[in-house]
Amino acid sequence: MRGAFVAALLALLVCDVRADDRGLFVAVGYGGRRITSRDGVTWENDQRWSDQAADNDDVLFNVAFGAGRFIAVGGGSRTGHILSTVDGREWKSLQEVKGRVATIAFGHGLFVAGHDAELMYSQTGEKFDYGARLDWKGSVHARRSACGDTEAGFRFVIIGDVDLWADKKRVSWRGVTSDGRSWEHTALDAPAARDVAYGSGHFVVVGPNGLIESSHDGQAWERHETDVMENFSHIAWTGTRFLVSGGRAVWASPDGLAWTRQPKPIPFNVAWAREGMLGLGFSWGGNIHVSHDLMEWKKVTIPPGPSLNAVTFGQP
What's the superkingdom here (predicted)? Predict the structure, then answer.
Protein backbone atom coordinates (compact mmCIF):
# COMPACT_ATOMS: atom_id res chain seq x y z
CA MET A 1 0.00 0.00 0.00
CA ARG A 2 2.78 2.46 0.93
CA GLY A 3 4.64 1.71 -2.31
CA ALA A 4 1.50 2.27 -4.39
CA PHE A 5 0.86 5.56 -2.58
CA VAL A 6 4.40 6.82 -3.19
CA ALA A 7 4.36 5.85 -6.87
CA ALA A 8 0.98 7.46 -7.47
CA LEU A 9 1.83 10.73 -5.79
CA LEU A 10 5.25 10.99 -7.42
CA ALA A 11 3.68 10.44 -10.85
CA LEU A 12 1.15 13.14 -10.07
CA LEU A 13 3.75 15.70 -9.03
CA VAL A 14 6.51 14.92 -11.55
CA CYS A 15 4.64 13.90 -14.68
CA ASP A 16 1.65 16.21 -14.37
CA VAL A 17 -0.74 13.49 -15.47
CA ARG A 18 -4.37 12.97 -14.59
CA ALA A 19 -4.72 11.15 -11.30
CA ASP A 20 -8.45 10.85 -10.77
CA ASP A 21 -8.08 7.23 -9.60
CA ARG A 22 -4.93 7.73 -7.57
CA GLY A 23 -6.08 9.45 -4.44
CA LEU A 24 -7.68 12.48 -2.90
CA PHE A 25 -6.87 15.14 -0.32
CA VAL A 26 -9.81 16.17 1.86
CA ALA A 27 -9.55 19.23 4.12
CA VAL A 28 -12.13 20.37 6.68
CA GLY A 29 -12.60 23.42 8.86
CA TYR A 30 -14.81 26.10 10.33
CA GLY A 31 -18.35 26.59 9.07
CA GLY A 32 -18.44 22.91 8.16
CA ARG A 33 -16.11 23.63 5.27
CA ARG A 34 -15.04 20.64 3.13
CA ILE A 35 -12.75 20.98 0.12
CA THR A 36 -10.83 18.44 -1.98
CA SER A 37 -7.80 18.20 -4.25
CA ARG A 38 -6.03 15.61 -6.40
CA ASP A 39 -2.64 17.31 -6.25
CA GLY A 40 -2.69 19.74 -3.32
CA VAL A 41 -2.57 22.70 -5.73
CA THR A 42 -5.97 22.76 -7.43
CA TRP A 43 -8.87 22.54 -4.98
CA GLU A 44 -12.55 21.91 -5.72
CA ASN A 45 -15.85 20.72 -4.24
CA ASP A 46 -15.76 23.64 -1.77
CA GLN A 47 -18.76 23.14 0.51
CA ARG A 48 -19.71 24.69 3.84
CA TRP A 49 -22.68 25.29 6.11
CA SER A 50 -21.61 28.81 7.01
CA ASP A 51 -19.10 31.45 5.94
CA GLN A 52 -18.30 32.26 9.57
CA ALA A 53 -15.14 30.99 11.26
CA ALA A 54 -16.87 30.71 14.63
CA ASP A 55 -16.40 28.20 17.44
CA ASN A 56 -19.93 26.83 17.25
CA ASP A 57 -21.78 23.67 16.24
CA ASP A 58 -20.72 24.10 12.59
CA VAL A 59 -16.97 23.48 13.07
CA LEU A 60 -15.30 20.40 11.59
CA PHE A 61 -12.11 19.68 13.50
CA ASN A 62 -10.61 16.58 11.97
CA VAL A 63 -10.79 14.06 9.12
CA ALA A 64 -9.41 10.55 8.62
CA PHE A 65 -9.37 8.04 5.79
CA GLY A 66 -9.95 4.29 6.13
CA ALA A 67 -12.18 1.43 5.00
CA GLY A 68 -12.50 3.14 1.61
CA ARG A 69 -14.02 6.37 2.93
CA PHE A 70 -13.28 9.71 4.55
CA ILE A 71 -14.80 10.47 7.96
CA ALA A 72 -14.97 14.08 9.17
CA VAL A 73 -15.89 14.99 12.75
CA GLY A 74 -16.77 18.14 14.65
CA GLY A 75 -19.60 20.05 16.27
CA GLY A 76 -20.10 22.06 19.43
CA SER A 77 -21.68 21.86 22.87
CA ARG A 78 -25.12 20.97 21.53
CA THR A 79 -24.64 19.06 18.30
CA GLY A 80 -21.82 16.81 17.11
CA HIS A 81 -21.03 15.72 13.57
CA ILE A 82 -19.79 12.50 12.01
CA LEU A 83 -19.82 12.84 8.22
CA SER A 84 -18.83 10.32 5.56
CA THR A 85 -17.81 10.62 1.91
CA VAL A 86 -16.15 8.47 -0.72
CA ASP A 87 -15.50 11.12 -3.35
CA GLY A 88 -15.47 14.44 -1.45
CA ARG A 89 -18.58 15.59 -3.32
CA GLU A 90 -21.41 13.69 -1.69
CA TRP A 91 -21.43 13.77 2.11
CA LYS A 92 -23.82 12.11 4.52
CA SER A 93 -24.32 12.38 8.26
CA LEU A 94 -23.89 8.97 9.86
CA GLN A 95 -25.82 9.46 13.09
CA GLU A 96 -27.08 11.99 15.61
CA VAL A 97 -24.52 12.88 18.26
CA LYS A 98 -24.96 15.24 21.19
CA GLY A 99 -21.78 17.20 21.90
CA ARG A 100 -18.55 17.74 20.00
CA VAL A 101 -16.62 14.96 18.27
CA ALA A 102 -13.27 16.70 18.04
CA THR A 103 -10.84 14.10 16.75
CA ILE A 104 -10.62 10.87 14.77
CA ALA A 105 -7.88 8.51 13.60
CA PHE A 106 -7.82 5.30 11.58
CA GLY A 107 -5.42 2.44 12.04
CA HIS A 108 -5.26 -1.34 12.37
CA GLY A 109 -8.63 -1.58 10.59
CA LEU A 110 -10.40 0.70 13.06
CA PHE A 111 -11.70 4.25 13.34
CA VAL A 112 -11.43 5.69 16.87
CA ALA A 113 -12.96 9.08 17.71
CA GLY A 114 -12.90 11.31 20.78
CA HIS A 115 -16.41 12.48 21.71
CA ASP A 116 -15.64 14.86 24.57
CA ALA A 117 -15.11 12.45 27.52
CA GLU A 118 -16.23 9.41 25.54
CA LEU A 119 -14.66 7.05 23.04
CA MET A 120 -16.38 6.08 19.79
CA TYR A 121 -15.24 3.39 17.36
CA SER A 122 -16.12 1.75 14.05
CA GLN A 123 -14.57 -0.86 11.77
CA THR A 124 -16.57 0.02 8.67
CA GLY A 125 -17.05 3.78 9.04
CA GLU A 126 -20.77 3.26 8.50
CA LYS A 127 -21.88 3.46 12.14
CA PHE A 128 -20.01 4.34 15.33
CA ASP A 129 -20.49 2.61 18.67
CA TYR A 130 -19.77 4.14 22.07
CA GLY A 131 -16.84 3.08 24.21
CA ALA A 132 -15.65 3.98 27.70
CA ARG A 133 -16.27 7.38 29.23
CA LEU A 134 -13.90 9.35 31.44
CA ASP A 135 -15.57 10.03 34.79
CA TRP A 136 -13.54 13.08 35.79
CA LYS A 137 -15.26 16.10 37.25
CA GLY A 138 -15.55 19.13 35.03
CA SER A 139 -16.10 19.57 31.31
CA VAL A 140 -13.91 17.02 29.50
CA HIS A 141 -12.83 17.61 25.90
CA ALA A 142 -10.83 15.44 23.51
CA ARG A 143 -8.71 17.58 21.16
CA ARG A 144 -6.27 15.62 18.98
CA SER A 145 -5.26 12.00 18.35
CA ALA A 146 -2.76 9.76 16.57
CA CYS A 147 -2.19 6.02 16.25
CA GLY A 148 0.68 3.66 15.59
CA ASP A 149 2.36 0.33 16.30
CA THR A 150 4.32 0.52 19.54
CA GLU A 151 6.32 -1.73 21.86
CA ALA A 152 3.03 -2.29 23.69
CA GLY A 153 1.09 -3.08 20.50
CA PHE A 154 -1.01 -0.93 18.19
CA ARG A 155 -2.44 2.04 20.09
CA PHE A 156 -4.38 5.26 19.73
CA VAL A 157 -3.27 8.24 21.83
CA ILE A 158 -5.80 11.00 22.51
CA ILE A 159 -4.96 14.32 24.16
CA GLY A 160 -7.41 16.82 25.60
CA ASP A 161 -8.29 19.11 28.47
CA VAL A 162 -10.77 19.51 31.32
CA ASP A 163 -12.42 22.76 32.36
CA LEU A 164 -12.71 22.76 36.15
CA TRP A 165 -15.26 25.51 36.54
CA ALA A 166 -15.33 25.37 40.34
CA ASP A 167 -11.55 25.83 40.51
CA LYS A 168 -11.51 28.33 37.63
CA LYS A 169 -8.76 26.48 35.77
CA ARG A 170 -8.13 24.12 32.88
CA VAL A 171 -5.97 20.99 33.10
CA SER A 172 -4.74 18.68 30.36
CA TRP A 173 -5.05 14.92 29.96
CA ARG A 174 -3.78 12.05 27.81
CA GLY A 175 -5.30 8.65 27.17
CA VAL A 176 -4.40 5.41 25.42
CA THR A 177 -6.76 2.87 23.84
CA SER A 178 -6.14 -0.07 21.54
CA ASP A 179 -9.74 -0.80 20.55
CA GLY A 180 -11.81 2.34 21.14
CA ARG A 181 -13.89 0.42 23.65
CA SER A 182 -11.82 0.87 26.81
CA TRP A 183 -8.86 2.85 28.09
CA GLU A 184 -5.53 1.10 28.67
CA HIS A 185 -4.18 4.18 30.41
CA THR A 186 -5.24 7.73 31.29
CA ALA A 187 -3.32 10.59 32.89
CA LEU A 188 -4.95 13.74 34.26
CA ASP A 189 -3.11 17.01 34.86
CA ALA A 190 -0.46 16.20 32.23
CA PRO A 191 1.68 18.96 30.67
CA ALA A 192 -0.49 20.95 28.25
CA ALA A 193 -0.23 19.62 24.69
CA ARG A 194 -1.87 20.92 21.51
CA ASP A 195 -1.06 18.24 18.96
CA VAL A 196 0.18 14.66 18.70
CA ALA A 197 1.71 12.56 15.91
CA TYR A 198 3.18 9.09 15.46
CA GLY A 199 6.32 8.09 13.53
CA SER A 200 9.56 6.14 13.82
CA GLY A 201 8.08 4.02 16.62
CA HIS A 202 7.23 7.00 18.85
CA PHE A 203 4.32 9.23 19.73
CA VAL A 204 5.26 12.90 20.07
CA VAL A 205 3.21 15.69 21.67
CA VAL A 206 3.89 19.43 21.32
CA GLY A 207 2.59 22.49 23.11
CA PRO A 208 3.33 25.85 24.74
CA ASN A 209 6.58 26.76 26.51
CA GLY A 210 8.60 24.73 24.02
CA LEU A 211 6.90 21.45 24.94
CA ILE A 212 8.07 18.42 22.97
CA GLU A 213 7.65 15.02 24.61
CA SER A 214 8.01 11.54 23.14
CA SER A 215 6.73 8.15 24.19
CA HIS A 216 7.27 4.57 22.98
CA ASP A 217 3.86 3.45 24.29
CA GLY A 218 1.72 6.56 24.92
CA GLN A 219 2.04 6.16 28.68
CA ALA A 220 5.58 7.07 29.74
CA TRP A 221 6.71 10.42 28.30
CA GLU A 222 10.15 12.00 28.01
CA ARG A 223 10.63 15.75 27.64
CA HIS A 224 13.17 17.07 25.14
CA GLU A 225 15.13 20.28 25.35
CA THR A 226 14.00 23.10 23.05
CA ASP A 227 13.43 26.84 23.46
CA VAL A 228 10.96 27.54 26.28
CA MET A 229 9.87 30.69 24.43
CA GLU A 230 8.42 28.58 21.61
CA ASN A 231 4.66 28.14 21.37
CA PHE A 232 4.20 24.95 19.35
CA SER A 233 0.78 24.08 17.96
CA HIS A 234 1.24 21.48 15.19
CA ILE A 235 3.35 18.41 14.47
CA ALA A 236 3.52 16.33 11.29
CA TRP A 237 5.33 13.11 10.43
CA THR A 238 6.79 13.32 6.91
CA GLY A 239 7.70 9.66 6.52
CA THR A 240 11.31 10.31 7.55
CA ARG A 241 11.12 13.02 10.23
CA PHE A 242 8.85 15.03 12.50
CA LEU A 243 8.24 18.71 11.74
CA VAL A 244 6.95 20.94 14.55
CA SER A 245 5.39 24.29 13.60
CA GLY A 246 3.41 27.10 15.15
CA GLY A 247 6.30 28.65 17.03
CA ARG A 248 8.96 31.15 16.01
CA ALA A 249 10.99 28.41 14.32
CA VAL A 250 10.45 24.93 12.92
CA TRP A 251 11.97 22.05 14.87
CA ALA A 252 12.72 18.66 13.33
CA SER A 253 13.64 15.15 14.44
CA PRO A 254 14.17 11.85 12.60
CA ASP A 255 13.09 9.75 15.58
CA GLY A 256 11.24 11.99 18.08
CA LEU A 257 14.24 11.89 20.42
CA ALA A 258 16.94 14.18 18.99
CA TRP A 259 15.62 17.62 18.00
CA THR A 260 17.18 20.48 16.04
CA ARG A 261 16.00 23.96 15.25
CA GLN A 262 15.68 24.51 11.50
CA PRO A 263 17.31 27.55 9.87
CA LYS A 264 14.25 28.63 7.90
CA PRO A 265 10.92 29.39 9.62
CA ILE A 266 7.52 28.44 8.23
CA PRO A 267 5.01 31.22 9.04
CA PHE A 268 1.97 28.91 9.22
CA ASN A 269 1.02 25.47 10.49
CA VAL A 270 2.18 22.38 8.59
CA ALA A 271 -0.93 20.21 8.36
CA TRP A 272 0.30 17.27 6.25
CA ALA A 273 3.63 16.29 4.71
CA ARG A 274 5.45 13.53 2.86
CA GLU A 275 9.17 13.97 2.33
CA GLY A 276 10.23 14.64 -1.25
CA MET A 277 6.66 14.76 -2.48
CA LEU A 278 4.27 17.27 -0.94
CA GLY A 279 3.57 19.43 2.08
CA LEU A 280 0.35 21.27 2.94
CA GLY A 281 0.04 24.13 5.41
CA PHE A 282 -2.85 26.23 6.71
CA SER A 283 -3.02 29.84 7.82
CA TRP A 284 -5.93 31.80 9.26
CA GLY A 285 -8.35 33.16 6.70
CA GLY A 286 -8.84 29.90 4.80
CA ASN A 287 -5.40 29.91 3.18
CA ILE A 288 -3.65 26.77 1.92
CA HIS A 289 0.11 26.66 1.32
CA VAL A 290 1.87 23.95 -0.70
CA SER A 291 5.46 22.79 -1.01
CA HIS A 292 7.17 20.05 -3.01
CA ASP A 293 10.37 20.08 -0.94
CA LEU A 294 9.13 21.25 2.51
CA MET A 295 11.39 24.30 2.23
CA GLU A 296 9.87 26.61 -0.39
CA TRP A 297 6.14 27.22 0.04
CA LYS A 298 3.52 28.86 -2.16
CA LYS A 299 0.02 29.98 -1.28
CA VAL A 300 -2.49 28.39 -3.64
CA THR A 301 -5.57 30.06 -5.06
CA ILE A 302 -8.84 28.85 -3.59
CA PRO A 303 -12.25 30.51 -3.09
CA PRO A 304 -12.46 32.68 0.06
CA GLY A 305 -13.92 30.90 3.02
CA PRO A 306 -13.54 29.87 6.66
CA SER A 307 -10.20 28.64 7.98
CA LEU A 308 -9.26 24.97 7.72
CA ASN A 309 -8.31 22.69 10.60
CA ALA A 310 -7.16 19.37 9.17
CA VAL A 311 -6.41 17.46 5.99
CA THR A 312 -5.86 13.83 5.07
CA PHE A 313 -5.05 11.78 1.99
CA GLY A 314 -6.76 8.60 0.87
CA GLN A 315 -7.30 6.26 -2.05
CA PRO A 316 -11.00 5.32 -2.03
Answer: Bacteria
